[in-house]
UniProtKB/TrEMBL annotation:
This is Ornithine carbamoyltransferase. Keywords: Transferase. Residues 5-144 form the Aspartate/ornithine carbamoyltransferase carbamoyl-P binding domain. PANTHER family: ORNITHINE CARBAMOYLTRANSFERASE, MITOCHONDRIAL (PTHR45753), ORNITHINE TRANSCARBAMYLASE, MITOCHONDRIAL (PTHR45753:SF3).
């Protein structure tokens, strides 16, 4: 019996495996509506979400259905978890009824516990520590338009401690690109790597970058810090200033939702919205291939 695969972190996948996923994602994107894969046929996958979601929930539910499976959305408030049932108990019961779990929650430890006790594949759909599905898809989106990301410079403008930035930092060495975090001091990336650099200068981070990337200043769960963060991050945005020093053909990505004239200038968002919306769409295609890889049916 093959060992279970989980995707809880960017550390859970090798570049070669990711590139197999990218190849299949591109194929399924081109043939959507013409090709009907059955990797999850007769399977039911549960989605447990403690945090609100648009793109993550939508892309995973559609992906499961397009692979022949059934998606079962479970709000954490509707489960006994909300009344204090241990994750270990919930995980073992779900593991006897469904074929896989996709979890969006606060603590990384929670997805790890589900993976340890559920005896079924578990996917991290976002925690406070990481958002690996987002970054896996983002790398695919970059390479779809610009070729290999290896050796390129990626500039993340904003909170270098946020989950998306952390997943980017873990991906840098794996894929061989250079990540520059442009953020206020105190929000530098905690990931130590020769492929990750921190700076408090937006211009230094963006200089010659092939990709400018940003996320909201106030992540879910940080709402009590809103006033403080609005002030500290007020100059850390993708705008004309950042674009003027980036590579001439630099892409602009935002994992959404976007707050115009905060982390990204309104005019820049409007000019680059096609890139950003394609980036969002690709969550579906990459996660379809990720699900097929997780169950060992990437060719199914």
């Amino acid at each position: 019996m093959k060992p279970l695969r989980h995707f809880l972190s960017m550390n859970d996948i090798e570049e070669e495996e990711a590139r197999m996923i990218f190849k299949k994602a591109l194929e399924w994107k081109k043939n959507r509506g013409k090709e009907f894969p059955t990797a999850l046929q007769y399977q039911t996958w549960a989605l447990i979400f403690k945090k609100p979601s648009t793109r993550t929930r939508l892309s995973f539910e559609v992906a499961i259905r397009e692979l022949g499976g059934e998606a079962l959305f479970l709000s954490s408030q509707d489960l006994q978890l909300a009344r204090g049932e241990p994750i270990e108990d919930t995980a073992q019961v779900l593991g006897r009824m469904v074929h896989g779990l996709i979890i969006r929650t606060y603590e990384q430890k929670e997805v790890e516990l589900f993976a340890a006790y559920g005896n079924i594949p578990v996917i991290n759909a976002l925690t406070d520590e990481e958002h690996p599905c987002q970054v896996l898809s983002d790398i695919f989106s970059f390479e779809e338009k610009r070729g290999s990301i290896k050796g390129k410079k990626v500039a993340f403008i904003g909170d270098g401690c946020c989950n998306v930035a952390k997943s980017w930092a873990l991906a840098a060495e794996k894929f061989g690109f250079y990540l520059w975090i442009g953020s206020p001091r105190g929000y530098f990336s905690p990931v130590k790597s020769d492929f990750v650099q921190n700076t408090s200068s937006v211009e230094e981070a963006a200089q010659d970058a092939a990709l400018l990337y940003t996320d909201v200043w106030i992540s879910m769960g940080k709402e009590q810090e809103a006033d403080k963060r609005q002030m500290e991050f007020s100059q850390y945005r993708i705008d004309r200033r950042a674009l003027s020093v980036a590579s001439k053909d630099a892409l602009v990505f935002h994992c959404l939702p976007a707050y115009r004239d905060k982390e990204i200038a309104l005019e820049v968002f409007n000019e680059r919205k096609e890139e950003i919306y394609t980036q969002a769409e690709n969550r579906l295609h990459v996660q379809k291939a990720l699900l097929a890889w997780i169950v060992g049916k990437l060719n199914g």
